[in-house]
């Protein structure tokens, strides 16, 4: 696998190269000390895998990834800081290695790379599944900490944005999932789920009462008592959607 190492510390790059020597499937085709160098090498060398530091002079590792044109390589982050872990996996990182890099953890990361490469058919099926539009009869798996649910989507009355997470409201449960509200909106059937405002998507089947609200908006009350404002702009779409 054609591999590029991106790290502003020369000693860290040398140590990683030493640790990677036993892994014959990893072919190191280049190294860069900052994002600008890395972007040129990515364009020229077309690596399949990046070992990427996060904190670097100029653009950080996340900014580097958003600057890549076309298909980005697979990524394993290498950093001395653990506070970026959640954000790293928002970028679909294969792994997140803390410095100093442990040999066994690196071995696990390489195994994950090989698994990812050896299962193109499974990946294609997963991608197809992830693009499917979900309706109220679909069931979804939800995990929050140690608790898990397999819930029919029609039971979820409200999706509420909480920063990088979305809170799901069903029955008396309110678990958090690591998704953006925008990405969920793209997958939900628009005939059932409506984007009420910047923070909320409501299940139209759960609306109990609708009232006029300030500045041309609407206030809906859902079964169970949730009261959600529909913004003025979305109220226009809502009336078009719900009218005869």
UniProtKB/TrEMBL annotation:
<dbReference type="InterPro" id="IPR007492">
    <property type="entry name" value="LytTR_DNA-bd_dom"/>
</dbReference>
<dbReference type="GO" id="GO:0000156">
    <property type="term" value="F:phosphorelay response regulator activity"/>
</dbReference>
<dbReference type="InterPro" id="IPR046947">
    <property type="entry name" value="LytR-like"/>
</dbReference>
<feature type="domain" description="Response regulatory">
    <location>
        <begin position="2"/>
        <end position="114"/>
    </location>
</feature>
<protein>
    <submittedName>
        <fullName>Response regulator transcription factor</fullName>
    </submittedName>
</protein>
<dbReference type="GO" id="GO:0003677">
    <property type="term" value="F:DNA binding"/>
</dbReference>
<keyword id="KW-0597">Phosphoprotein</keyword>
<dbReference type="InterPro" id="IPR001789">
    <property type="entry name" value="Sig_transdc_resp-reg_receiver"/>
</dbReference>
<dbReference type="Pfam" id="PF00072">
    <property type="entry name" value="Response_reg"/>
</dbReference>
<feature type="modified residue" description="4-aspartylphosphate">
    <location>
        <position position="53"/>
    </location>
</feature>
<dbReference type="InterPro" id="IPR011006">
    <property type="entry name" value="CheY-like_superfamily"/>
</dbReference>
<dbReference type="Pfam" id="PF04397">
    <property type="entry name" value="LytTR"/>
</dbReference>
<feature type="domain" description="HTH LytTR-type">
    <location>
        <begin position="142"/>
        <end position="244"/>
    </location>
</feature>
């Amino acid at each position: 696998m054609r591999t590029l190492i991106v790290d502003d510390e020369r000693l860290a790059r040398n140590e990683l190269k030493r640790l990677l020597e036993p892994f014959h499937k990893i072919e190191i085709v280049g190294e860069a000390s900052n994002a600008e160098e890395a972007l040129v090498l990515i364009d020229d060398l077309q690596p399949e895998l990046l070992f990427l530091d996060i904190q670097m002079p100029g653009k950080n590792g996340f900014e580097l990834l958003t600057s890549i044109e076309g298909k980005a390589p697979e990524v394993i982050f290498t950093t001395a800081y653990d506070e970026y872990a959640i954000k790293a996996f928002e970028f679909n990182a294969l792994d997140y290695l803390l410095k100093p890099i442990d040999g066994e953890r690196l071995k696990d990361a390489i195994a994950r790379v090989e698994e990812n490469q050896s299962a193109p058919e499974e990946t294609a099926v997963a991608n197809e599944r992830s693009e499917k539009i979900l309706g109220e009869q679909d069931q979804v798996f939800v995990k929050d900490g140690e608790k898990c649910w397999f819930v029919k989507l029609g039971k979820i009355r409200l999706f509420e944005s909480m920063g990088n997470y979305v809170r799901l409201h069903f029955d008396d449960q309110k678990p958090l999932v690591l998704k953006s509200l925008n990405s969920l909106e793209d997958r939900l059937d628009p005939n059932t789920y409506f984007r009420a405002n910047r923070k909320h998507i409501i299940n139209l089947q759960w609306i109990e009462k609708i009232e006029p609200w300030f500045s041309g908006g609407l206030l809906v009350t859902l079964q169970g008592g949730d009261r959600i404002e529909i913004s003025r702009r979305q109220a226009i779409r809502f009336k078009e959607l719900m009218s005869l």
